[in-house]
Amino acid sequence: MSESILRTEGLTKAFGGLIAVNNVNFTHATGKLHAVIGPNGAGKTTFFNVVSGFFAATSGRVIFQGRDIVGLKPHQISQLGIARTLQVKSVFGGLTVHDNVWIAAQSRTKFLHPFRPATSYRETARRVDQVLDEVGMRDHARELAGNLSYGDVALLEIAIALATDPKLVLLDEPVSGMSPTETERTVAIIKDLARRVNVILIEHDMEVVFGAADVITVMTQGMILCEGSPAEIAKDPRVQEAYLGAPEDEDEAHA
Amino acid sequence: MPRRLAPLQILGLACFVLLLAVPYALPLLGAKFWVNIVAEIMIWSLFAASVNLLFGYTGLLSFGQALYFGFGAYGVALGVDILGLSFWPAVLFGVFVAGACAAITGIFAARLTWHYFAIITVVFSLIFFFVAVGWKSVTGGDDGRPFTVPPVLKVGGVEFTLLDPTFQYYFIMTVVGACFYLMHVILKSPLGYTFIAVRENASRLGLIGYSPYLIRYISFVIAGIFAGVAGVLFALFARYVSAQYLFWTVSGEGVIWALIGGSGTLFGPVLGATFLIVVREELSIYWEHYLFAVGVIVILFVAFAPGGLMGLLTRALDWLAKKPAERTAPEIAKPAPRAKGPGGGP
Predict the structure, then answer these.
(1) Which end of chain B has a smaller Cβ tally under 10 Å, C or N?
(2) Across the interface, do A83 and B186 touch by the CB < 8 Å criterion?
(3) Cβ separation of A117 and B188 shorter than 8 Å?
């Protein structure tokens, strides 16, 4: 197997006494749609936050394309080729859908020209249309992002991530709050995306995870519990325990 | 095919023509005194626009723009008076020291946002205010320091100087107009887009590969340079500089002009500065405590018309453009959308 695009070694993030991510050795299954699941508070989003540079790791390493990226700022990590969406959807609310994607697409040019009209960048404009087509949002191009429905904001966030031409996309609960139709559409987009770029997906919707993912990693209490194909994970008693609680735990609770 | 102009653009063009006519029209109306007031309004409009570049576009509320205004003013005055520079080198020197001051203070200020940013900008301007007040031999302190403005240029035997009020008026109008044009170009460029993006969502901007700090810093320095140009013009216009122009109340006036005019719009600060300076000129004759009225105006605008004068104007024009049957009462209290896209509104 070729070198994985992303792996972590002993990655730990502590907030005071709380260890949110505890000695995680994660290896992205290259070329696969890799899902990370786990109960609330398992440390999934914190794991993303450390990888994308929002938080500095307490210890351990994050190796992206053979390079330790711990300590880099989010914008530097983005420039290396990691894009991410946020659990609480985050776009430029006061800008149009088109301009949201435009800024993301333009971020790959190293120089921000202060005098050339933004509308004169043909290549960027072409890329924006292409990305909006991919997520099926061309019709919304002139709308203010702040006026979009929640599902469309989530899709726009994916479009923004795509526009930066990433090598790895981290999606944090992309279908939460979506209607069944929107979910179906988004899952199709994510599956299609996973054929071209590496995708790591955090998701609570088990139907989506087991339907789309090639590999699933289960986290609990900041640690990796197990990893495997959807079929393996579905059968694993430890996973059921993590989600539903062990029988003896229940007894203790009643005692 | 000529492009059809929007009503607001027609209005803007009309204002431009009126401004061109001021030095000839106002004396005919027996209001020669107002030529200089209009010139002064243009200078303060540029100052308010620099506050607006930070607040309305980049989302940073600065209470310290007077610092760069003051540096520009002192730069040109001391450049002439102490360094013995002629007109243009002194002007460039003034703009340069203002920009340099913004470049140094910006290293610290651009790391912060919101109230922390507001506080650090006040602190910087207060430090230099007290330095200027104390260093009387050079700055003239509170009393100020008058200086003689050298001629702008000599062509053959003809000398153009700012002592000629008509020439001075057009000189100020040209410089202010050029600055507004430059600001327009910057705001429509990729750089300008990122100013608005950092205001809208700095962490998202970081996630797509821009350094929010760097964007804020660039915006801060550019705003400082524009404030510096306003300061240079003001010193030349007044033939005098004083430590008072570094005081934070001057910064506060810039903020109020930008707010009342409509922050996040290019020409909003012009409307705000015009409105409040006219109020000052007219009201202060009759009423010593006219600032009380200004306070009430500010409260009313912030509470009921956050889009400022420009917001009200846009809404009024939209309403007039509709057919009478479609008209409903304009919803004054409803906030206007902040920006229609990068570059904002008009």
Answers:
(1) N
(2) no
(3) yes
Q: Is A31 left (phi over 0), alpha (psi -120 to 50) or beta?
A: left
Establish if B143 touches chain A: CB-CB under 8 angstroms: no
Rounded to two decimals, what is the model's pTM? Answer: 0.87
Amino acid identity of residue B269, one-letter, is P
Picking from A54, A75, A95, the nearest residue to B341 by CB comes out as: A95
Q: Which domains does chain B have, with CATH numbers?
A: 39-326 (1.10.3470)
B101 against B23, higher pLDDT: B101
Task: Tally C-beta pairs within 8 A across A and B.
Answer: 107
Say what the pLDDT of residue A160 is. Answer: 93
Q: What is the DSSP string of A38-69?
A: -STTSSHHHHHHHHTTSS--SEEEEEETTEE-
Q: Does the pLDDT value for residue B49 go beyond 90?
A: yes
- Rounded Cα–Cα distance for residues B139 and B151 (Å): 23
Q: Do B193 and A74 touch (CB under 8 A)?
A: no
pLDDT at B222: 96
Mean pLDDT confidence for A126-153: 89
Of B208, B211, B212, the CB nearest to A103: B208
Nearest by Cα to A227 from A215, A238, A213:
A215
Q: How many CB atoms lie under 10 A from the CB of residue B60?
A: 25
pLDDT higher than 80, residue A45: yes
Facing residue for A74 by CB, picked from B190, B207, B218: B207
- Contact between chains at A114 and B189 (C-beta distance less than 8 A): yes
Comparison of pLDDT for A247 and A161, the residue scoring more: A161
Nearest-angstrom CA–CA distance, A50 and A63:
12
